[in-house]
Amino acid sequence: MIPKTHPRYESLLLREKIVKASEKGYLADSAMIAHGRGEAFDYLIGEKTTYPAKRAMYVAVAALLLSDNPVISVNGNATALAIDEIIELAREINAKIEINLFYRTDERVQIITSLFRDRGYKEILGTLDDDIEYFTDIKNSRSSASKSGIYTADTILIPLEDGDRAEILKKSGKNIITIDLNPLSRTSKMSDVSIMDNIVRAIPFMTKIAKDLKTQDKKVLMDMVNDFDNEENLKESIEQIKIRGI
Ligand code: ATP
Fold it and tell me: Ligand 1 — pocket residues by CB below 6 A?
C-alpha cells in the first residue's frame, strides 16, 4: 500500500498497475522496460500535460470525430493503465476498440478480451474469434488486423505503439495518432498527430475535448486538422523538456 503523502504517489500507483498486470499474465516481457522509458520522459516534463500535447489532443479528437471508421488500438500496457478511460473515450467518439499486440499470444489476447467483456464492453475486436486480415504478404502478428477494425479503419489511435507496427499502419495509408511520452520515438515521428503525454492523463482529457468538439461544425474540425503541423508541434514538445530541465 503506497501512502498518499508519498511524493511519487501517482507514479508508483502506475508502476503497481503494471506489476499487477504482469502477474496476471497479459503483458509482454518487455512491457516494464517500455513503461520505464515512458516514466523517464514523464519525469522530464514534470508529470503534467504540456501545451503542445493539449493542442495535439484537440486535433486528434477532431480527426477521430471526422473519421468514418475510427479505431482505438490497445495493447497490454494501455489496458493495464487506462482500460476504463479508453472504453469511455471510445463511446464518446463512436470508435471501435481493437486488441493489437506486438507479441501476440492466445493467452494474452484471451485475458485482455475478458477484461473488456467483464466491464460490459462486448464489442471488443482483435479477439481470438475475430476475422483477421494481413497488411503484408508475411502473415505474422505484426501485420495482422481485425477486418472490421484496424484493417478497414481510416483513423487509428495507437497509444504506446512500437515503431515497426506504426510503420506498417502508416504505409497502409492510415491516418495515425499516437500517445507517446517519447517525442523522439519512431512512432511519434511518423504519426500524423503525436501526443506527448501520459496515457492516464491524455485519454480522459480527450474525452472532455470530445464532448465539446462534438457540437462543432465539421468545417471547424477540418480546419483544426489541416492547420496542424506535427513536426512543428513535436519540436515544441521537445522544448518543453528543455524548459522543465532548467
Ligand atoms: P519506437 O519503436 O517507436 O522508436 P520504442 O522502441 O520505445 O519506440 P516501445 O517500447 O515498443 O517503442 O513503445 C513504448 C513507448 O510508449 C515508448 O516510447 C514510451 O515512451 C511510451 N510510453 C510508455 N508508457 C507510457 C505511458 N504511460 N504513456 C504514454 N507513453 C508511454
Answer: 34-35, 37-38, 41, 81, 160, 162-163, 179-182, 185-187, 198-199
Q: What is the pLDDT of residue 246?
A: 56
In a domain, 194, yes or no: yes
pLDDT in tens, 150-190: 999 999 999 999 899 999 999 999 999 999 999 999 999 99
Residue 5 burial (CB count, 10 A): 6
Atom of ligand 1 nearest to the CA of 166: 3
DSSP state of 185: S
* 30 is a domain residue: no
Residue count of the chain, please give it.
Answer: 246
Write the pLDDT tens digit of every residue in 19-76: 999 999 999 999 999 999 999 999 999 999 999 999 999 999 999 999 999 999 999 9
Residue 21 included in any domain: no
What radius of gyration do the chain's Cα atoms show? 17
Grid cell digits, residue 13: 500507483
Residue 38: CB partners within 8 Å, gap ≥ 6? 160, 180, 181, 182, 198
Domains of the chain: total: 1
